[in-house]
Amino acid sequence: MIISVHVPKAAGNSFRECLAAKFGERLLSVYGDWAGCDLPAANERYARRTGEMRERGPELMLKYDIIHGHFAADRFVGVFPSADYVAFFRDPYQQALAHYYFLLRNPQRDHPEERILHDEKMSLHDYLEWSAFRNHQTQYLGSVSIEDLAMVGLSCEFGKSLTAFRTIFGVDLDEERFCNVNPASAGAYSITPEVKRLIDKHRAADLELYRRAVEIFKKQSAAVAA
């Protein structure tokens, strides 16, 4: 079984489209669990739905080859006889702003993060100081180390990441698909000194995680090219 962790705003939607085109009905997409949001209501919902999903282990083994979605990597640890974990990561400065502006564009979803952000009219600075999302990408690993992932992808190296997936798993995902991109960002957000200071302070673990992700990706790419 392949377990694909969709870190928000790190090419996860694009990767899911590639997986869907190749795996079809053998892909299980898991969303709506309110993962990666450290609020009591979200944590309760995530724990309950995780328990329900883990009980379905034998059924999932029969019906699917890959599970992709918004959940922490450790959600399925011990559920299957063997599992390989993959995830894409993004520069934390860019990921933090991309997620804020995504929430700003989407007030309609039934999710506490969006309801609170809009009800309280949070500014970008408010959001970066919000404890629910500190080290947002790190939350999506849970207790799993990034060094234990079978494949580490980078959103800024999407094509090379697909090549690594093909080499590691023997599955050609055919083409690059870019989804859910903010048309106003032109591919990169401008980072002011104050925004950088807040991200440095509140997402230090994500910055370290991304540094390790880049190192692993370089080694992974070199091994693929060898």
Topology (SSEs and partners):
Elements: E1 2-5, H1 12-23, E2 27-30, H2 40-54, H3 57-63, E3 66-69, E4 84-89, H4 92-105, H5 112-119, H6 124-129, H7 136-139, E5 151-154, H8 158-169, H9 193-202, H10 204-225
Parallel strand pairs: 1-3, 1-4, 2-3, 4-5
Order of helices and strands: EHEHHEEHHHHEHHH
How many helices in DSSP terms?
10
Overall geometric form = globular
How many domains in all?
1
- The CATH class turns out to be Alpha Beta
Instruction: Briefly note the CATH topology name.
Output: Rossmann fold
Q: How large is the radius of gyration?
A: 17 Å
Low-confidence stretches: none
CATH superfamily: P-loop containing nucleotide triphosphate hydrolases
Largest beta-sheet characterization: 5 strands, parallel
Q: What's the helical proportion of residues? A: 40-55%
C-alpha termini separation: 26 Å
Q: How confident overall, as mean pLDDT?
A: 91
